[in-house]
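pasting for the record
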Amino acid sequence: MPKATPASQDFVTIRDIRDGVVILKSGQLCRILLASSVNFALKSQDEQQALLLQFQNFLNTLDFSLQIYIQSRRMNIDPYLDTLRALEEKQDNDLMRVQLREYLLYIKKFTTDNNVMAKSFFVVVPYTAAPLNISKNFGAILSKGKGAVTGELRFEEQRLQLDQRTAIIEQGLLQMGIRTIALGNDELVEFFFHVYNPGEPTAHAPVADR
């Protein structure tokens, strides 16, 4: 008999997303932080050296791994163009209407001729303990040592450890002027949607406060 074609879900390593935490099939938990950027090129040589030294010291203080992920997406300017069209329709001054129309056409042509990309920076904070056997029912009983604990309790214990790691990352990056925001459930779904569908131009990545 021919082998069954694997379902697309078989290639996705995510088991669940709960309370802003990504639960992988391996049992590992992850938080994903959206990070603001620093314009390194505009800083003086001394400032650049100081920033590199800060980053080096930050990495040396960590006793766990992390992942830095940069996501590049073609910028979706359709909402901005819609705003310009609405302004054009409401404009009473003929000259202003013509200028708005010319500006709209210029922006549309420029973004069509040039690959205008939006970059977002993320930090993935992992935590791996004993395998977390989570089913759809988080109240399922799991054996542990002499007694039994629920999947809910196991999840809360491991999330606490993950939160402590996340706080260390947030504080370390803040000392370098980098602000971070932990992605929530909806933002995580959108994030992974674009990871697995890089050519999809719709929707917007969340933006960290600068």
